[in-house]
Automatic annotation (TrEMBL):
Residues 527-605 form the AMP-binding enzyme C-terminal domain. GO terms for biological process: acetyl-CoA biosynthetic process from acetate. NCBIfam families: Ac_CoA_lig_AcsA (TIGR02188), PRK00174.1 (NF001208). Pfam families: ACAS_N, AMP-binding, AMP-binding_C. CDD domains: ACS. Its EC number is 6.2.1.1. Mg(2+) binds at V533, H535, V538. The gene is acs. This is Acetyl-coenzyme A synthetase. ATP binds at G383, E384, P385, D407, T408, W409, W410, Q411, T412, D496, R511, R522. HAMAP family: Ac_CoA_synth. Catalyzes the conversion of acetate into acetyl-CoA (AcCoA), an essential intermediate at the junction of anabolic and catabolic pathways. AcsA undergoes a two-step reaction. In the first half reaction, AcsA combines acetate with ATP to form acetyl-adenylate (AcAMP) intermediate. In the second half reaction, it can then transfer the acetyl group from AcAMP to the sulfhydryl group of CoA, forming the product AcCoA. Keywords: Acetylation, ATP-binding, Ligase, Magnesium, Metal-binding, Nucleotide-binding. The lineage of its organism: Bacteria, Pseudomonadati, Pseudomonadota, Alphaproteobacteria, Hyphomicrobiales.
Length: 644
């Protein structure tokens, strides 16, 4: 572990909104008096009906209920757009940078208002009402933000599905959300390659049904249009009025569903609501990134993930920021692309993922150094633990040693950042997400639920609610309770392991459940296993994560074939493609080991601990193997472990 400490630079300390003393005092107040603290912070957004109650929360396993600002009402699109019009109608709200470096667009708040109103009217014309679910399967184009905000404007609930997901994965999400309307594009474009989004929707809708598909034109490719079901967005937009009044939405009315993987079963539809979510996203965006009036802010995530929801769209726009939306990838056309975009648009704040940093680090310093990056003031990291080497490189090479790095820990379920430095207040330690944000009470517990004190390591739980917290799993509150509130009753269980050092800094050590984090993408081992066993030649499969130099974790699959089926290189490729088709390219196994049997206890439980060790190449550390039903299985696995 890195022991290096980077003190807050003097200029930052002097100009800090929140310095170290203020952080300590405010933090103490925020946990001692959450109603007082959050009641004040909530004034940063505009309410339609003011709230009189702040926090009403029960983490009791028998009755998990989470409400913030429960009797207030507002509208998120109004907060992200209309509220800014009197003083920043001509300010750029969204800079869109296309995959092709010669394409970019600037959308002002006035234009954003018009576009979102039109989109909202198109949805209304197609029967979308308050509370209805709308599936958004779009590439990184401004229409993705318009569509999200259009839903928010009329009180509909969006479910954004990452454009990299397969037709099957999309179908499952449309069905679970009971969504009648799907918004897509003809094609997506990333890294110079096209992806057939509309065709994928067609394939998904052979399995599940939706009444309406709205197709945005991105490339102009010819796509099948099913009469009565499929509509061109551009045609529909011409038929509707330019203005659309915003709906009054209860603070606890749903804003969006976002599917995320867990240890078991199918991805869960994590549900976020309105008032608390926006307060949390906007406040963290301002304080963690030290967002200042006039800054150009760039988060490189995709809107298909929660990072894109909270820190491309809602947080920045609620703060009246200029947010950059990037269609492409870090290495196209060259590995200098990120830095060139920073120079092109004079980006002040840059937020990306460790996997991208590690991949670019592999290309050396020259592609970075040939760009200026003078505009950059602050760097952020999210999605997985950042190893100190990558942190140091990001700091020294990208930030030229002058930009603080905010390593932000949070989750789809947390809605916004929970543990991160405040750049004017917190000394940095490479690899540590540092300290809790206001109102956040992390605790480290042992396997028996004892709360550990001082320097320690264990599982990370959060002792009390925060406004951006997910409220339920869509359609399955019991699963919400089971997943997050039963392991450590009365506390929210994050699924992460964590160490706290003697300075009170938090170091996330990674997932402790059967979730793996591949390039910052969260996947359930169970999901990949069920994709594998769906293949006719596979009898049994067990999937574990293993350390991967660029992706953070890679996917290691142990596969037992049906009797009589011969293992071969061809079958290996076939299985990788099969998983890709069932879920997504991000779920493709890096290693498949064919095995005659899997290590099991006498009661038939697969011993994953052993499989993890073999995948990590740590044969000496297999631990207790005395409960194995058949020890020879393990010997075979070790003997036949593929090289690498
Ligand atoms: C999991 C949540 C946060 C939005 C993107 C991912 C891991 C996330 C960090 C970080 C160490 C991190 C955790 C967490 N994670 N950020 N800064 N340091 N680990 O959201 O897909 O819901 O994944 O990502 O393991 O539980 P997500």
């Amino acid at each position: 572990m890195s022991e290096k400490i980077y003190a807050v630079p003097e200029a930052w300390r002097n100009e800090a909104r929140v310095n170290a003393e203020k952080y300590d005092a405010l933090y103490r107040r925020s946990v001692a008096d959450p109603d007082g603290f959050w009641g004040e912070q909530a004034q940063r957004i505009e309410w339609i009906a003011p709230f009189t109650r702040v926090k009403e929360v029960s983490f009791d396993t028998h009755n998990v209920a989470i409400e913030w600002f429960g009797d207030g009402s507002t509208n998120i699109a109004m907060n992200c757009i209309d509220r800014h019009l009197p003083h920043r109608a001509d300010q750029v709200a969204i800079i869109w940078e296309g995959d092709d470096p010669s394409l970019s667009r600037h959308i002002t708040y006035r234009e954003l208002h018009e576009q979102v109103c039109r989109f909202a009217n198109v949805l209304k014309a197609h029967g979308v009402r308050k509370g209805d679910r709308v599936t958004i399967y779009l590439p990184m184009i401004p229409e993705a933000a318009y569509a999200m905000l259009a839903c928010a404007r009329i009180g509909a609930v969006h479910s954004v599905v990452f454009g990299g997901f397969s037709p099957d994965a999309l179908a499952g999400r449309i069905e679970d959300a009971q969504s009648d309307v799907v918004i897509t594009a003809d094609e997506g474009v990333r890294g110079g390659r096209k992806s057939p989004l509309k065709d994928n929707v067609d394939a998904a809708l052979e399995k599940v049904s939706a009444k309406t598909v709205i197709v945005v034109t991105r490339t102009g490719a010819k796509v099948d249009m099913k009469p009565g079901r499929d509509f061109r967005y551009e045609d529909e937009a011409k038929k509707v009025p330019e203005d659309c009044p915003y709906a009054e939405v209860g603070a606890e009315d749903p804003l969006f569903i976002l599917y995320t993987s867990g240890s078991t079963g199918k991805p869960k539809g994590v549900l976020h609501t309105t008032g608390g979510y926006l307060v949390h996203a906007a406040l963290t965006h301002e304080l963690v990134f030290d967002y200042r009036e006039g800054d150009v802010y760039w988060c490189t995530a995709d809107v298909g993930w929660v990072t894109g929801h909270s820190y491309i769209v809602y947080g920045p726009l609620a703060n009246g920021a200029t947010t950059l939306m990037f269609e492409g990838v870090p290495n196209y056309p060259t590995v200098s692309r990120f830095w060139e975009v920073i120079d092109k648009h004079k980006v002040d704040i840059f937020y990306t993922a460790p996997t991208a940093i590690r991949a670019l680090m592999g290309a050396g310093e020259e592609p970075v150094k040939k760009t200026s990056r003078k505009s950059i003031r602050l760097l952020g990291s999210v999605g997985e633990p950042i190893n100190p080497e990558a942190w140091e490189w990001y700091h020294r090479v990208v930030g030229e040693g002058r930009c603080p790095i905010v390593d932000t820990w949070w989750q789809t379920e947390t809605g916004g950042i929970l543990i991160a430095p405040l750049p004017g207040a917190t000394a940095l330690k490479p690899g540590s997400a540092t300290k809790p944000f206001f109102g956040v009470q992390p605790e480290i517990v042992d396997a028996n639920g004892n709360v550990l004190e001082g320097a320690c390591e264990g599982n990370l739980v959060i002792a009390d609610s925060w406004p951006g917290q997910a409220r339920t799993v869509f359609g399955d509150h019991e699963r919400f309770v089971q997943t997050y509130f039963t392991a450590y009753p009365g506390k929210y269980f994050t699924g992460d392991g964590c160490r706290r050092d003697s300075d009170g800094y938090y170091w996330i050590t990674g997932r402790v459940d059967d979730v793996i984090n591949v390039s910052g993408h969260r996947l359930g081992t169970a999901e990949i296993e069920s994709a594998l066993v769906a293949h006719e030649k596979v009898a049994e499969a067990a999937v574990v994560g293993f350390p991967h130099a660029i992706k953070g974790q890679g996917i290691y699959a142990y596969v037992t074939l049906m009797g009589g089926v011969e293992a071969s290189e061809r079958l290996r490729k076939e299985l990788v493609d099969f998983v890709r088709k069932e879920i997504s390219a991000i779920a493709s196994p890096d290693v498949i080991q064919f095995a005659p049997g899997l290590p099991k206890t006498r009661s038939g439980k697969i011993m994953r601990r052993i499989l993890r060790k073999i995948a990590e190449n740590e044969f000496g550390a297999l631990g207790d193997t005395s409960t194995l039903a058949d020890p020879s299985v393990v010997e075979d696995l070790i003997k036949n472990r593929p090289a690498g």
